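Lab notebook, entry 99. We have the chain sequence and a SMILES string for zinc ion, and the next step in the workflow is to get a structural model of the bound complex before anyone spends time on docking refinements. Request logged below.

Task: model protein plus zinc ion, output structure tokens.
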Amino acid sequence: MKAMLTIRPNCENCDQDLPYNSTEAMICTYECTFCRECAKDILKNVCPNCGGGFTPRPVRPKEQLAKHPASAVRVLKPVNTTEHQKVLLRYENILPKNR
Ligand SMILES: [Zn+2]
Ligand SMILES: [Zn+2]
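Result returned:
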């Protein structure tokens, strides 16, 4: 089976719903999923899990969802802001492509 993008149903930080066709969903290279506000305002475009940047999650066409459904598993791991400050010190001022 081909590896495919896991479409998680919520923001890992604030738990708001991010359905498969949400234009607010942002992902890192490991599919850590956050809403746009959390990714930008709280995380400053630094993934707390891997240090990478975020990109908008592509919408999977409805027809494809029948074969490859979105995940129903909610991942919730609110960001520890003290810990994230350390991650930010390391990565915030480096463009994702140069991290
Ligand atoms: Zn959020
Ligand atoms: Zn990540």
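Notes for the group: DSSP finds three helices and three strands in the chain. Worth checking against the assay data. The first helix runs from residue 36 to 42.
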